[in-house]
User: Which sequence fits this backbone?
């Protein structure tokens, strides 16, 4: 009888598997989701929970405008990239702010131009760039790169009134 209970005792003991503490595996995964039937552009804002790393936010891009090359499918044009950067500099919407998102970029209207070339995305703006914080730089670089390609692998060069950032890549 004792021999018959031995296998049950071993099974109850967990088969030799030891308990472990929680293992940290890094940052949580990020997923970009666009509601069905909407065309979006991706902007990057800073979250209170990830202060050093901007988070993607999908905004409605509106209908395609053949004259400006913006809207659905047009985010790969200079006009689409300027539109995305204009929305970025306008800052987070009220629901985005309520969710804890903010911008590290300077407030106010910034005049922008964008050129897309084989070397990547060239952004020119009428504001200083060398004193931007690293999160602000990444907001700008990631949004500009995303406007060109969905994988954010584009090199981005930002020229401001006080110098140049880059070429740099999105680190998000």
Assistant:
């Amino acid at each position: 009888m004792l021999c018959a209970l031995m296998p049950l005792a071993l099974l109850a003991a967990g088969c030799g598997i030891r308990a472990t503490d929680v293992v940290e595996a890094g940052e949580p995964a990020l997923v970009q989701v666009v509601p069905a039937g909407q065309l979006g552009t991706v902007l990057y804002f800073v979250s209170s929970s990830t202060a050093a790393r901007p988070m993607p936010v999908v905004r409605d891009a509106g209908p395609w405008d053949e004259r400006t090359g913006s809207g659905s499918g047009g985010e790969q044009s200079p006009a689409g990239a300027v539109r995305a950067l204009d929305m970025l500099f306008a800052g987070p919407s009220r629901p985005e702010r309520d969710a804890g998102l903010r911008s590290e970029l300077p407030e106010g209207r910034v005049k922008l131009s964008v050129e897309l070339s084989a070397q990547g995305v060239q952004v020119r703006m009428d504001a200083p760039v060398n004193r931007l914080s690293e999160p602000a730089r990444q907001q700008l670089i990631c949004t500009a790169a995303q406007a060109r390609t969905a994988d954010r692998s584009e090199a981005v060069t930002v020229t401001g009134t006080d110098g140049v950032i880059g070429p740099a890549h999105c680190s998000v």
Observations:
- The first strand starts at residue 40 and ends at 47.
- The CA atoms of residues 66 and 74 lie 8 Å apart.
